[in-house]
Design goal:
globular; two-stranded antiparallel ribbon; binds zinc ion; mainly alpha
Length: 100
């Protein structure tokens, strides 16, 4: 099934986490690490992470300058499911501050 990523590129694969096309997603986030924690925590955290990355991706598409201000790699490095669960109510801006 052909999809249109929020980056404006069409792609012909499974859904990506951020709803960018796979190429742009890889460029922006690299490979997402497997999360660590209990099964319940991990599945919850994966949803939280996907939602947040979608938001980040959307912000990037709208304003490329944001890229240099964002601590994307620090965010992606968060492997503990618990961290994502604890930050589930945070906005993108709050998360970036939390990474300082
Ligand atoms: Zn793309």
């Amino acid at each position: 099934m052909t999809r249109l990523g929020i980056c404006g590129h069409q792609y012909d694969e499974e859904q990506t986490v951020s709803t960018l096309c796979p190429v742009c997603e890889e460029k922006l986030f690299g490979t997402l690490p497997v999360l660590l924690g209990s099964r319940t925590e991990v599945s919850l955290a994966m949803n939280i992470r996907s939602e947040l990355l979608r938001e980040v991706a959307l912000m990037m598409v709208e304003n490329e300058d944001l890229h240099r201000n964002m601590r994307i790699s620090q965010l992606i490095d968060k492997r503990k499911a618990k961290w994502w669960v604890e930050h589930r109510k945070y906005s993108v801006q709050e998360i970036m501050v939390a990474l300082l």
